Amino acid sequence: MTTRIHSLWLMASSTDEAMLTDLVDELSGRFRTPRFAPHLTLQGDTTMPLAALEHAVAAAAETVTAFAEPVTLVEGSDAFFRSFYARFAVSPPLTALKRALDPEALGSFMPHVSLLYGPVEPTAKTAAIAEVNARLAGRSIHFDRIGIVTSGQDIPIAEWRVVASVPLQAA
User: Minimal CA–CA distance to 97: which of 5, 9, 170, 165?
Assistant: First the structure.
């Protein structure tokens, strides 16, 4: 039997999710890169059984109220899954969720929502980052649920699927 790989994603409210999805689609079309669901990874590539993940996510979601965080900066890197992303401050609610779900990685936590995966031509990428930064920097994104997602570096992006979703506490 193959072990299932899952990730835990903090997901934006439906309005912000639609805006971010449109942006991912726009950039994907512009640079011919993979499309994906925008998200803020709280824990990636875990082999923890689904039932244990559901329990951990439900417990974490009970401790945090749905919240909004402003985008601090749009930037890029050479990393495939962080080629182009909106970065957020390490705020109290983000810290609480990371501590509850992936405490070993709390020290290296860099909250972000990727907007483009994969390598693209550097000059065009720099220009696009500046354009998107002008649109998003300072804009608050409302996060309201945690998704358990079949995803990972060894699973094709087109096959990533949310298998469970747990809402954060109502504001």
Answer: 9
Rounded CA-CA distance 168/104 in Å is 22
pLDDT tens for residues 102-152?
A: 999 999 999 999 999 999 999 999 999 999 999 999 999 999 999 999 987
Looking at the predicted structure, is the pLDDT value of residue 171 above 80? no
Write the DSSP assignment of 12-23 as a string of letters.
E-HHHHHHHHHH
Q: So what's the pLDDT on residue 2?
A: 58
The pTM (predicted TM-score) of the whole model is: 0.94
Say if CB 155 and CB 28 are below 8 A apart: no
DSSP 115: E
Determine whether 78 is exposed, middle or buried from the number of CB atoms within 10 Å of its CB (0-12, 13-18, 19+). exposed
Largest CA distance in the chain: 48
Cβ neighbors of 121 (< 8 A, separation 6 or more) are none
Return the closest-CA partner of residue 42 out of 89, 85, 105: 105
Return the DSSP state at 104.
G
Whole-number Å distance between alpha carbons of 48 and 57 = 12
- For residue 154, what is the DSSP state? T
